[in-house]
Amino acid sequence: MNKSINDLVKAAHENAVSKGWWDEERSFGEIVALIHSEASEALEDYRNGHAPTDEWYQHKIDGYSVMQLTDEYKPCGIPSELADIVIRVMDACGRYGIDLEQAISEKMAYNATRPQRHGGKVI
User: Fold this and answer.
1) Contact assessment for residue 75 and residue 59, using Cβ atoms and an 8 Å cutoff
2) Mean pLDDT across the chain, nearest whole number?
3) 57: which strand partners?
4) Radius of gyration (Cα) for the chain, nearest Å?
5) Measuring CA to CA, which residue among 117, 48, 104 is closest to residue 76?
């Protein structure tokens, strides 16, 4: 089933609300810090020797890992952390009423006009 980006934004935010993540108001700074923490978790997996495509599933209680997803296991690895980043961004956009689909389209169109490796930064 294909959903638009804004459909996914709505679903991510509704899920966060239903799970109590918005019972108390959060500052924008806290929201950005949570997004950043997911990026840090992806970096930590990489620093621990995992490839960007490595995936595994960890038991929610006992902590041991397997290679298949069931209700008792949570997905782990860099792909999962990158998904968490996107989900947190979508939740934030849902909270603030940001049209993420339009923002992405506009930014990609602008980026297409920029020179090769603009800004001269090394990384």
Assistant:
1) no
2) 91
3) 66, 75
4) 17
5) 48
